[in-house]
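anyone else get weird line breaks when pasting these?? whatever heres mine. first is seq + tokens for prot A
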Amino acid sequence: MIEGPGPCPKGPRGPKGPPSNGELTPYDRGWNAAWEAQCKGVSEVHAQQACPYPVGTEEAFAWFRGFAGNSEEGDSSPKAAKAPKEREQILLPFEIACGTVTGRDHISMGRGSQDGFCVLRSLGVANEEVVVAIACDGCGSGEHSEVGAKIGTKMLVKTIFSEIASIELMRLDPSLAEKYLQEMILSGMLPSGNPFGSYHHVFPKNFQEVLEMSRESVSEKIRTLSKDMGLTTTPEGRRSQTETVRQYLLFTAIGFVMTTTRTVAFSLGDGVACMNGETFVLDPGEGNEPEYLAYGFVSSGRPEPKFRILWEVPTDQVQSVLVGTDGTNLILKSSDNKMPGKDEKVGGLDQFWTNDFFFKNPDGLRRRLALMNRTAKGGDGSVEHGILLDDTTIIVARRRA
């Protein structure tokens, strides 16, 4: 709390004084929220959280900081508050490649790919880089499960990034966290509407907590989305929200998060993951029924699925990390086979982090998968089919040389 600012120069009812119609503008409400926070000793961080009108709040706090001596002499306007120097950027020394192809079985049935993937690489307000990468695979029995897979990747990536930020902010020293937020709000580096969702400094101490909160958040969004989509008719002729989820919104997820301090690979359902050359194949379970994020909506007899952490290691010990949907396992099984129409072998998964071509050409990884999956004539004139019967999506990161 700033001691002794005296009466607010713009009045306790907003910068223009009490309105004639008795109603305050959002700007006035924001200013008043900041004024009350200072009088009550409430931190700026909590006031920013509680007030839905950030513009007035932002300028008011800038004025208070100016009054407290953080402004040019003789000028107590909001613009006079000194913004902090921008922090030096800390970037991850990694390059990323990704690609996806439709499986032969889906092509033969006239269906498109049911995979989706998304990679977010962004700086937090402390200018430390973070990567969130996820690939999702829609349920094969769902008529339009590619909808859930493609939407789900984006929702999960965005939500996990935000949860990392919010949890870590609460774990920092409160005074340090408030200082960061104040500086970034005043300098314009931090969006005033939702500072927590844009904040990232160091990796959370409990990533399982991040994943669980993200799963719950995305599950609720799926529940809302399924309602908004309307009811879907079951084979028996009944209209059901559960059937909407079953046909459109069931998907697995596999991915990794990389920060300047920690790297974590995780999954919900089947797929393939590699960390520094070590490979982990996730079994789809009995009856080829992997866990799907929204299974809790369609199967009352089984518990809600949880994310599983596959690896959690210091980032400075990571050389490469790869995640892929379940079609990736077909590459492992066919690594010694010849490529269709070629003499070279399919090769193992290590090619995706050792071959420079995939990182120099943005379409390189997809093209390699497409060559594995084409139909071509062999040297003896016989027809050779591709190896990827199922949709296959791969995301790989490797340390720059």
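and prot B, same format (seq, then tokens)
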Amino acid sequence: MKKLLTFLFIAASIAAADTRPNIVVFLADDMGWGDSGCYGSKKILTPNIDKLATQGVRFTQCYAACGVCSPSRSSILTGRTPYRNGVWRHLSGNNEAHLRRSEITYPSLLKKAGYQTCHVGKWYLNSKDQFNTAEYPQPGDHGYDYWMATHNNAEPSHRNPNNFVRNGEPVGELTGYSALLVAAEAISWLEKKRDPKAPFALSIWVRRTKYSKSGTLSKKKARASGGKIEKNVPRPEPSFPTDLSLHLCHECGCGDSIWYFATLLP
């Protein structure tokens, strides 16, 4: 089992005392506690994550509720231990475990308080045979007004996936890599689908954060980010956090009232 350490930082402050902040939660898989520059890595280039960390609070002893993926996600949404909320194991296959409909999640509470809520990316809080079925709760049942998700991994691969579901309807094959498609969906929701007059809570859960052998970092990109290229060293996708963060801060006009929470899972 991979080591799991969760860190959280807040990269923007509330514009005024009586203004409700917008909330963005980034959740990334397959990053160990030392897989970013702000946590000591000398080989893996993470300039965008490092920049967010310098503008906020970096926690060094903030631990997740479990050492595997699904239970940790359930605790983030509910604030309860996995054994209490129904997700006591990872849900890659078929199992009765799932995030129960009766659980109270922070998106559902924020929605009642007038927030618009959106989830994009991996879901992984019900088993594969339970995902996108009426019998079991889906993201929309846990407080999200709008969602586009996969059960677990993008399939058949993270390039040109065909298993995303948007608000209960299969999307079909998409062109591009899953992390960038998730970022594009979040930007689309921010630009075209939300009410700019209301506060929002946006969850962005990406599964593929690193380059595979089919998408290694080029020398040109390494130089542009101020780093050196090294053979066989995985690097987080550089454009995903940059595109979305810049959009939130500059194009939406809401950068001064956003709370960013960045969390890494195994």
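btw re prot B: Residues 92 and 127 are 6 Å apart (CA to CA). The first strand starts at residue 22 and ends at 28.
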